[in-house]
Specification:
By secondary structure, this protein is of the alpha/beta class. Helices cover 43% and strands 19% of the residues. The chain has a 7-stranded mixed beta sheet, sandwiched between helices.
Length: 380
């Protein structure tokens, strides 16, 4: 992973050097992004930054937007809200006109308040907490929100008859995890399965899951739903294997990245299902071209966060074109133009065909699920 981070940083720096030397001030649209490029959640942040750079390069090679190039500046927040706000201020000093981020929910909530005060256009590729876009009418989302994920997960499990008895293991200290569980629990009442155990952990107790697993096993759960991130999920799967507990496993988009956890036996993830709008094995031309380019540049298969971010660049491109925007507009004027344009565009992307946005600023697209088979994600 360290090798990938270094490569991505070099690629971003090189592209930024090109864009700042090849074009005079005022001739580029300046897009910033903030996410964890180091630390425990670096898989998410680097996937986002890599995909944004790929898309920005594609757009620029094709002639840019409204005759102007895109200029991209990525900032690391280590998945820390305070550092994310500091990164936002750094980007403002740089002259950012639009923010494609932040990547994770808690930092995004903190930054979105600043962006609302500044009337800065914000499109989060992967910040799924409801509060990520709640501070003002300047913020939109590419991914599904937490409530949407919880409801869709319960419907998918029920409608496909995946289980009769379901246990849930979630992080009650995390807005992402707790928010998904709340709507999953509500929708489960309408589905033909029973929640037989709902066991929480917190940020201070996320290394030993023996109690939660034992309760799920004793309750006879034939499926365990985990609305959590991949690091904790890898520990849960490892500890479940050690105790001889082998239910079906079902996760959400935060699980994407589990196959990259250092030291994790990926064979334990075989059969793991997760809700995600992107499958790298899809055979449509857009996905195949993206996956091929991404693998050539970064040496690994792209995860859903990368697909969300790649779509984010093209969503911004479509909105800029719809608005007839020019790079000499200040950030607030550009935000006003983009807010109106977002409700008028339709985008066919990696994560959804015919994506649209209305006054809720949430994306309209169909949920999908994948399963891990032979060490890769396969569409269900």
């Amino acid at each position: 992973m360290k090798k990938l981070i270094r490569f991505a940083s070099i690629a971003c720096a090189s592209a930024m050097l090109f864009s700042t030397t090849a074009f005079a001030e005022g001739e580029t649209f300046k897009i910033g992004s903030i996410g964890p490029m180091t630390g425990a959640a670096a898989t998410y942040g680097n996937a986002v930054m890599n995909a944004i750079q790929l898309a920005v390069d594609e757009v620029n090679e094709a002639g840019g937007v409204n005759g102007a190039m895109l200029e991209f500046n990525p900032q690391d927040d280590e998945n820390d809200a305070e550092k994310s706000v500091n990164a936002y201020n750094t980007l403002k000093d740089w002259g950012m006109q639009m923010l494609l981020g932040t990547v994770t929910s808690a930092p995004c909530i903190a930054v979105s308040a600043e962006a609302a005060n500044d009337n800065m256009f914000l499109l989060t590729p992967s910040g799924s907490a409801v509060e990520c876009i709640a501070a003002g009418d300047n913020a939109f989302r590419v991914c599904f929100s937490d409530p949407d994920q919880g409801t869709a997960s319960a419907k998918y499990i029920g409608e496909n008859k995946l289980a009769e008895k379901v246990a849930v293991i979630y992080d009650s200290s995390d807005v992402y995890s707790a928010g998904i569980y709340a709507t999953f629990q509500a929708e489960a009442a309408n589905q033909p399965f029973e929640i037989v155990a709902a066991e929480a952990f917190t940020a201070d107790s996320k290394t030993d899951f023996s109690v939660q697993l034992q309760k799920a096993k004793d309750a006879g759960a034939d499926l365990v739903y985990m609305p959590i991130y991949y690091n904790e999920a890898s520990l849960i799967l490892t500890q479940a294997d050690a105790m001889g507990f082998a239910p079906k496993w079902f996760g959400v988009d935060g699980m994407d990245g589990i196959l990259t956890v250092e030291g994790f036996d990926t064979a334990l993830a075989e059969g793991l299902m997760l809700l995600t709008p992107f499958s790298a094995d899809a055979q449509d031309d857009l996905t195949k071209n993206f996956v091929t380019k991404y693998e050539e540049l970064y040496g690994e298969e792209p995860i859903q966060f990368a697909a969300d971010a790649y779509d984010g660049v093209y969503i911004i491109k479509a909105a800029l074109e719809k608005a007839g925007a020019t790079p000499d507009m200040d950030a607030s004027a550009l935000c006003d133009a983009l807010k109106a344009a977002m409700t008028e565009i339709t985008v066919d992307g990696l994560t959804g065909a015919g994506m649209t946005w209305d006054e809720t600023r949430e994306p309209s697209k169909e949920p999908k699920a994948v399963v891990i088979q032979d060490g890769v994600y396969v569409g269900m």
